[in-house]
Amino acid sequence: MLNILSDYVRSMVVVSIIVSIAMTIAPKGAARAVIGVVSGLVIIIVLLGPLASLRKVDLSGFSLDLSERIVSSDENLLIEQDNLLKELIVEKTSAYILAKAQALEVDCEVIITLDDSSPPLPIAAVIKANIQYDPVFQREMSGFLAFDCGIPKENVSFIWK
């Protein structure tokens, strides 16, 4: 890197000296203007010379690494999004079921199981009731879960106090 920089500075110094000498010995008039324009173009070419060498740099490794990082990040975000969606569905379904249980004046806990579809749907429920066995509550909740939540009656379990 240091060699490249020293070569660049050396070429700029040499070109500047040559341009200065050419402008000093150039006669006044049109010839001097032409030498000034040509000298300016030579200086621009020397200034932009390192940009030509940038084309030779292989950026494919950098590009490939960046692409892999983006794909990995996208996959992680999709997994996180799916997990958040599942948590939200379980939370909202549980709250809905608990509200129904409270309307029936029963305190309970609810455990929801989701399927693997997209979006995930509730397929089973376990209701831990803080009461002794109550066939009316069981019938009401089983019917409610089947009709309102789409959970088949055979996938609803009750745990009694």
3D structure, described in words:
This protein is mainly α and 161 residues long. It folds into two domains: 2-54; 89-159, ANL, C-terminal domain (GMP Synthetase, Chain A, domain 3), CATH 3.30.300. The chain is built from four helices and three strands, in the order H-H-H-E-E-H-E. A three-stranded mixed β-sheet has the order 1-2-3, with helices on one face. Strand 1 and strand 2 (122-129) form a beta hairpin. Helix 1 packs antiparallel against helix 2 (30-54). The longest helix is centred in the middle third of the chain and has 44 residues, at 60-103.
In short:
The protein has 161 residues and is mostly helical.
**How much strand?**
5-15%
| CATH architecture verdict of the largest domain | 2-Layer Sandwich
Strand order of the largest sheet: 1-2-3
Largest sheet: 3 strands, mixed
What is the CA-atom radius of gyration, in angstroms? 39 Å
Going by helix content, strand content and strand pairing, the class is mainly alpha
Overall shape: it is rod-shaped
The helix/strand order is HHHEEHE
Strand elements, count: 3
Count up the domains.
2
Classify the fold: give the CATH topology of the largest domain. GMP Synthetase, Chain A, domain 3
Unreliable spans are: none
Oligomer: single chain
End-to-end Cα distance, whole Å, is: 78 Å
What do the pLDDT scores average to?
86
The CATH superfamily of the largest domain appears as: ANL, C-terminal domain
